[in-house]
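Consider the following assembly input.
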Amino acid sequence: MPELPEVETVVRGLQAVLPGREILSVRLGKTDFIDNPVLLAERLPGRHIAGVSRYGKYISIELARGAAAANPDAPNFLAIHLGMTGRITTGSPAEPVRPHTHVFLALDDGNELRYTDIRRFGKIRLAAQSWMDALRARWGEDALEIGAAEFARQIGSRGARIKALLLDQKAIRGIGNIYADESLWRARIHPARRADHLSATQLRALHRAIQATLLAAIRLRGSSFSDYVDSEGKPGAFQRMHRVYQKEGMACRRCGHAIRRIQVAGRSSFFCPRCQPAPRVRKKIHARKKHFRN
DNA sequence: AGCTCTTCCTGAAAGC
DNA sequence: TGCTTTCAGGAAGAGC
């Protein structure tokens, strides 16, 4: 499940090989996850790649602007979201093609950029600057860049449960289920706590925990659970450092209590019931979800 | 307005 | 053994 650290790792890999390359041709398989496949196939050939960057969990491949592409509505960005099972790799076109590979871009150095996505939860779009700006306006600050004060202001004022907010890209961008759970464990905060019930100290601790967790994950090139690999096709190693995610029933590394799993905001949430004390049970929640004891 | 739930997709694993 | 059911989750959109 590519989240900020995995996308960052892929982007760094692509930055090493893509800038300056010309896209020679486009071949497509299934296209239901591509915003406008005809436009993509028509407009990409002949364009040169200027750079690669990350925006939240989006990968943005910027195309060099020719004279004709100078106007602001020109589609100068290839925006790619890996969804849950997306992978982008570059390598020789002679390498065997993995099943569910749906985009092939031939490059002028003889290599091929491929997009593979089993579940096709990913998204690909040839986008104009205005679309990238709209994404920026819609979403919150990047989880790695946001300061402690801004984090407390954005998150601490909301009535939603903290886990739901961490997953909401409009509140803060880049975090998914793995790093939300790992960060909450590190900060000793229960995933079902209301954000506006957290103390200033807890918000500071959570801000610190998020950034420390994300940076540690980037150092280990991300977490490979099912499908994630970097742009060279190699898995990350941060899954070895997971403390709660997918560890139901195992002993908490801090206190030894069994890790539990509950649903919060429609997502599996793993936590230590001793280190991360539950919110005071509200009658509404108690009546609906009996497993909220602890 | 602000929050939670449902939906899309495939394959692995559990259930019977 | 072999079938069916459940589950995983990012983010848009529906619903409350």
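The longest helix of chain A spans residues 200-219. Ask yourself how this observation constrains the way the partners meet.
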